[in-house]
Specification:
By secondary structure, the protein is of the alpha+beta class. The protein has five helices and seven strands. It is globular and about 40 Å long.
Length: 156
């Protein structure tokens, strides 16, 4: 896997993976109002807005995964369904953690996203609480309940 900063030309692939991955993991567990807003167009718009915070992992010309960072938060983390269960996610997580740098870091995982929760736990992230989290949407921010995970990365 080649991981590099995202470029504008990556936006269609990021948006497609984000849309399919989001619906795979979240559509049945978040409020219907959020699901209705998670369109391909919204994913493309958000990918453009967060391009400078995004790194992409490519395998043989295929976008295998991406992550976005927001200060001390691992803001988004997605792996294409074709690569789930292959170990690629663990490799991508190592890159994401290195990009976050040393210190106390966190991420939000939608309550009920058991597959992601198990993966984060396997990677050493610790669930600390359930909390409301403001998600961005094309219609403005909405609140969803998330499991907050934290991890001390490297030396502080």
């Amino acid at each position: 896997m080649q991981v590099r900063p995202a470029k504008p030309a990556d936006i269609p692939a990021i948006a497609a993976l984000w849309h399919s991955g989001w619906h795979q993991a979240h559509a049945s567990i978040v409020p219907p109002a959020v699901t209705a807003l998670r369109t391909s167009e919204e994913c493309a718009s958000r990918a453009m807005a967060h391009l400078d915070q995004t790194q992409v992992g490519w395998v043989d010309g295929h976008l295998a995964g991406f992550f976005m960072l927001e200060a001390d938060e691992l803001y988004q983390f997605y792996v294409d369904a074709a690569f789930q269960g292959t170990g690629l996610a663990t490799d991508l997580m190592r890159v994401a953690e290195a990009a976050l740098g040393a210190g106390s870091k966190w991420l939000a995982c939608s309550v009920g996203n058991d597959r992601a929760a198990a993966f984060f736990t396997k990677c050493g992230w610790v669930q600390t609480c359930v909390t409301p989290y403001e998600v961005e949407t094309g219609a403005g921010p909405l609140l969803v309940d998330v499991w907050r995970y934290e991890k001390q990365i490297g030396r502080t």
